[in-house]
Amino acid sequence: MTVLRPPPSQKSSAPRQPPLLLSNPEMVSQHTPCTLHHSVLPPELACDLFYTMLDAAQGWSRNKWWLFDRLVESPHRTSFFARLHDGVDGDETWQEAAQFWYNGRKTEAPQPFPEEMEEACKYIEKVVNDELRKRDRYALEWAGNGNDGQCWRANVAAANCYEGAKETVGFHSDQLTYLGPYPTIASLSLGTSRLFRLREVIPSSETGKRNARTYNIPVVHNSLTIMHASTQERFKHCVPPQSTIDIFRPSYPRRIKGASSEREQNIETSNCRINITFRFYRPDYRPHTIPRCKCGVPAVLKPDMKGRSDGPVHDAKTPSKDPNKFSVNAAQQDYSIRYWWMCYAGAQSEGKTCGMWKVMDAEAEGRGPFVGPLPGSHASSSKVTQED
């Protein structure tokens, strides 16, 4: 008896690629829209900042929010810090953003940057702004400059403490509510080494044509990972659990309290990683400009990652045949993407939401200044070269 079977499918599935370890800065730049910088702070400052944040972390809390009708708790401790004077804008109401709303709820007042963090900002801001001057920019990036002529300033920082090998954070992209489109986020690692994992969100239009690849970046003590423009629009990131980690032994012991020039004799080891993500809360996304939903809560701004349309590479000199590779020197790849405002009250009210949703209209909302002209009512965006 002949068994009837359907004819073989003519549609070939895209090959799955194994995770790739990006073991050096060159590989990070080649495969992702990020850059990796080692030894960004003077060694003594890196140790002093680690000790300061490690002590502060004893009082940090674990975020709680509602997800799919159940209350969940983050498997790491976190806290917010705000800079009193950021040198970009005289209106300091952006501090309200850090203070009052996170995951759909009001929070306690943020801590001011401690002395060591202020000192670290001098180095980090220089690295970030130097990188921005090298890169092609997206039209919707912030184009304003501060009093010192710098475009990017760290006026808010989210700090996380991962103790041991099992404390983690799951895959996510950062909310853009106060950052605006195409933000630059500088992530400083202190203490024990962990993996920082990135995975692209494949647009719906490319489903079946290619699969997302996972990239693992080892982030060591005193290293800075800069998530450049398009990272939050194209990728999600996480800190995965590990089977083992190396115990961190600082290069310098603690300073003796009350005697800043003297240090203790013994060096204490640690199994903690301190992560400080320095962010630039844009003046054109001040709290009073953020739409509120019917719940009375500020909406959150998110990119339509699945609905974006990735355009062709236009530079014939350095074409990339590998769709998973990203090159800042390769040409202008266009991303047509929409951003939307949506209710986020459900994160704190047992998952209940008013369902508010609307597309961001940067021009109608009075946002800017931007690097390039607004490319349409749906906030489509394309890169602008440094020569433009």
What does this protein structure show overall?
The chain is 13% helix and 27% strand. It contains five helices and 23 strands. The chain has a domain at 20-285: Sandwich (Jelly Rolls), CATH 2.60.120.590. With 388 residues, it is α+β, with helices and mostly antiparallel strands. Residues 378-388 have a biased composition (Polar residues). Residues 153-282 form the Fe2OG dioxygenase domain. This is Fe2OG dioxygenase domain-containing protein. GO terms for molecular function: dioxygenase activity.
The gyration radius over C-alpha positions equals 22 Å
**Could you tell me the strand content as a percent range?**
25-35%
Unreliable residue stretches:
312-334, 377-382
Per CATH, the class of the domain at 20-285 reads Mainly Beta
What's the helix-strand series? EHEHEEEHEHEEEEEEEHEEEEEEEEEE
Mean pLDDT: 82
Identify the strand order in the major beta sheet: 2-13-10-17-8-5-6
Strand-pairing-aware structural class: alpha+beta
Total number of beta strands? 23
Q: CATH homologous superfamily of the domain at 20-285?
A: Alpha-ketoglutarate-dependent dioxygenase AlkB-like
Helicity, as a percent range: 10-25%
Shape: globular
**Main pleated sheet:** 7 strands, mixed
First-last Cα distance = 71 Å
In the CATH hierarchy, the third-tier topology of the domain at 20-285 is known as: Jelly Rolls
At CATH level 2, the architecture of the domain at 20-285 is: Sandwich
